[in-house]
Amino acid sequence: MTIRPILLVPMLLFGWGAFSLHSAERSWTNSSGKTIVATLVEIAGDKAVLQMAGKNFEVPVASLSPDDRKFIDEWKKGDLTDPSGDAAVKANWDAPWPALVSVDIEQAIEVIKEDEAAKEYVYASPHYEFICDVKLNTSVVKRFSLLFEATNQVCRELPLGMVKPFRKERHKIHLFETREAYIAKGGPPESAGVYISRGGEGDILVPLTSLGVKKVGSNYSVDYDKENTTLSHEITHQLTDAEYYEPGSRGWFTEGFAEYIANSGYRSGKFDIDDLGKLKARVTAYGEDGNGGRALGEDITAPDLQQFFTQEYDSFLANAQLSYGLSALIVYYYFHMDGDKDAANLKAFLKALKEEKTPPQLFEPLLAGRTWDEMEAAITQGWRSRGVRITFN
Ligand SMILES: [Zn+2]
After folding, report:
1. Closest CA to 41 of 60, 62, 23, 59
2. CA–CA separation, 113 and 237 (whole Å)
3. What is the whole-number distance in angstroms between the Cα of residue 3 and the centre of ligand 1?
4. What is the pLDDT of residue 224?
């Protein structure tokens, strides 16, 4: 699940500062020939947000020189290397598919702020900032931060061209002592955590109970290693590049991808990617006890594939169990079964999203010369050999 408020509130209003993809400083020239040296922070609609001397300001992209606009196009594609040579954002398209992904379980936790009066406690792991309404021991933060760091590591290692996992700025996670406080800040009742997107950027909200953090005496401790399908799903949403949420991809790809990671076996800072048995079981069985299972059975009737890919997100959510389960199967198919089993067609589809292609052209790389009927048949055949029968309408 993702929530995208219709109103896109400028992030500076929230006081979180500017998010940066750490592209390097460069000089920018406008149509009247004026040149400034600034860093590109983000593209907001038809405006470029540039940072100069610590301040952000917006410039219409159309007012910039052809070179600048070309730079922005490359930047959006995410294959831009920092010319200074360090801290380069090089989108990962070519690495081999990871199998086992792990992070150091002894990573340092930094105390950023412990403000008793404001009830704001901020802790940081290498790529995350945890903003909490109660004081926590760093040993507790270290333990639950592993799931976040490991999910981040998976998103770096998967060759899907995403740049958000590489962002220098730490991703923000808001933690709440009580479910009431979580719901008051926008957490959906009954949910274990949520990613709230604001124009492709966004924060994750999580009640501490979802992380297995409990109050013992006057302290908090982690009393169990919670297997957390929901959270790794939401963490994946936060790391997924904004372009992948565009129509034609949002829904089947974004949710299927989040399900793919969430259903990979996780334990203590390690993900066993490509654990087909678990993903298949989650989709076909289990589902009675809110454990993330979809309970679709091994004989699945699916909607027309093209309609499934192009439907509105609301319609996707209206039939959630089928939509999420089927999306996981389809994404798995494109990752591991399609073509030469190298995800080439899916990667070409993601590149088309980065190039702002829209349906129906957007689907050309995915179809790779096949008709929609042939595409459905290929997915059906792929899964049949693994014991799931999908019948498209
Ligand atoms: Zn989701």
Report:
1. 23
2. 27
3. 9
4. 63
Q: How far is the CA of 1 from the centre of ligand 1 (A)?
A: 3
How far, in Å, is the centroid of ligand 1 from the Cα of 234?
6
* Centre of ligand 1 from the C-alpha of residue 27, in Å: 39
Q: Which two tokens stand for residue 252?
A: 């089947």
Given the candidates 3.40.640.10, 2.60.260.20, 1.10.8.60, 3.30.2010.30, the CATH classification of the domain at 100-240 is 3.30.2010.30
Amino acid letter, 146: L
Token pair for 192: 């274990």
2-77: CATH class? mainly beta
7-11, 263-267, 301-305, 363-367: range with lowest mean pLDDT: 7-11
Give the pLDDT confidence score for residue 28 in this predicted structure. Answer: 76
**How far is the CA of 169 from the CAs of 127, 166, 198, 340, in angstroms?**
7, 9, 16, 37
Q: Are 332 and 388 within 8 A, CB to CB? A: no
Q: Tell how far the Cα of 258 is from the centroid of ligand 1, in angstroms.
A: 6
CA of 262 to the centre of ligand 1 (A): 10
